[in-house]
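To the team - 6-O-phosphono-alpha-D-glucopyranose complex, inputs and output below.
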Amino acid sequence: MSDVKPFVLDFDLVSGFCTSGKVKPTQRRVSDMVAQFANETAARAMVEGGDPLLYEFYGLDLPEDDSGVLQFGTTILYPGKVGEEYFMTKGHFHTILDTSEIYYGLSGHGMMLMETPEGQVDWKEIGPGEALYVPGRWAHRSINTGTEPLVMFFVYRGDAGHDYGTIEEKGYRKLVVERDGKPAVIDNPKWKV
Ligand SMILES: O=P(O)(O)OC[C@H]1O[C@H](O)[C@H](O)[C@@H](O)[C@@H]1O
Ligand SMILES: [Fe+2]
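Output:
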């Protein structure tokens, strides 16, 4: 058991930021995930044109080897598109595959795209006041389908870990793109078996 003392942390409901500045967010830009977008040419052009910030999230300094710890924080995913594909997170399986995660929508609107190693796929919309349960075994990627930052609070088992490799190699089976001004879920042409 780790020796974490009780503590309180503030997260602004709209911006998602820890306004007291007690923790600093990690940022990911288009350059951090060019190969993940369906239109890599559009992604590279955006990197050249200033490399916009896609999202930032708070990872706290809690022990990552203790199943009794709960990791938590907020993700702030900005609105925008790379080609026709909405801004999204990298997405990951948990290293301990069977561990789940809960997201609670604070502001903005988006979608969680999920899939299992066996090839089941699912997606759920998420907005303010909605709690989304991502069961163990489901890889998860957040997507901002709106015009405001998508802000979500998350919590998961402390030792769950992030497995990015599988998604980086194979991609997701589905993509979320804008079609006729609306989000559409389509097959990912770059997905590898
Ligand atoms: O890890 P990414 O796929 O880049 O997503 C960024 C972050 O999003 C979520 O909110 C997760 O709970 C975090 O554990 C994760 O690190
Ligand atoms: Fe996760």
